[in-house]
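Chain A, query sequence.
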Amino acid sequence: MFCVALLLTVLQDVVLSKPNIIFILVDDYGFNDIGYHGSEIRTPNLDRLANEGVKLENYYVQPICTPTRSCLLSGRYQIRTGMQHGNIQPSKPTALPTDSLTIADKIQQAGYSTHCIGKWHLGFYKNEFLPTRRGFDTFYGFLVGSKSHYHHRRCDRGMCGVDFRENERQIRTNREYSTTLFSRRAVDIIDSHQSSKPLFMYVPYQAPHSPLQAPKRYIHPYKNTIPDIHRRQYAGMVSALDEGVGNITRALKRKGLWENTIFIFSTDNGGQISRGGNNYPLRGNKGGNFEGGIRGVGFVCGGQVRNKGTVSRELMHVTDWFPTLVNQAQGNFEGVKPLDGFDQWDAISGREKSPRDVILHGIDPLARRFGRPLFNSSFDTTKHAAIRYKDYKLLTGKPGYKNYNPNPRTGLARTTPKDSRKKNVWLFNIRDDPLETTDLSASRPQIVKEMLDMLAEYDKSSVPVRFPGSDPQANPELRGGFWGPWR
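Chain A, predicted structure.
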């Protein structure tokens, strides 16, 4: 009996030594939309958490929704999973392939209780692609990429339906605001959590992605400070989000879980300027490879973070969360395909330099070609691509929105450099020139060629793009008015 009791005690200590992991992912959140970056939008809860933890100020995500989520959950670049082009639209029969185990799979195998609350956007045309088949014990949220925050309805190519689920069951809500619903569900899970298992909770909020909708009580405080109606509505969405995150962290503390928690906050891509977001002082927008599209807002806090109140400028990419968090969960990598991410815990903790010196921002073979091949290189510069090597970033093809974001307080923006109409290669030293003002491609041709060779090697290892046409069988009218698996 004594041996059994001792064994149970040891097992309980092992469980307790594994940290709870909470990952908050927000949608279309701009670099200038958080208080500690100087925003006029008030984010007191996020600012407090970031100030108590480690701010990640050299952290990169992908320029749009599905690619970032695929990188986060698989730990692999888009070229490994076929997610190189665009977002998954509701009626397209494609998804993150099941031969890539997810971060939730591995953390679940490590003995965690795993939950996904919010936006999936990694495909759902077959049941095997649903969150509850990809490592999550529970799911509460929606499968498509965007929808009404109140009616939870989405139309795609003339096909319209409601999208809201609890686990694999379609549900109709009472038209309550999605940010409120997701925050409340997260708090409920924390309140009912049994300490026999550590907790992994992934909360990919819908906000502040368009449509621009929020309860008036969040928008009203900005009526005299933000004249632009889109920016004002967006600010209200961010305020609701900030309140929700505050409620989640208070629930963790009330339950006594905070001191054994790693809490991560990240955006999925840069802000969408036409929908209220702002990436000032960076250049670029959601969907492009200039810094405004891919430089992420991110921080890590919680009781398991020891170097509180610090800033990390170590190079980090969204794929790095997979090995970092699986190792923190004391999981293993059995069955995992080769990862592109690196364990960054020592870099986040300030003990080591980042193990990363290259980031493949992307190669999109389906994007429209632009210009003519330059530099007589192994990589076709008419392709839409971008890569980071140490301090340098190389862009090819048509990199997206090129302009600088205006200062939301003054409306003034830096003048965008003029390029020739057929230009399709840019080189920037991001450490010395984070605003991408000075193109070095003409003065550093050898660096350009070396980085083009890197792109060529990555391109050779790419799998075919998964981007089929729309399928009329996806029509929600065939499934009671709900979006859901149809094959």
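The CA atoms of residues 46 and 130 lie 30 Å apart. The first strand starts at residue 20 and ends at 26.
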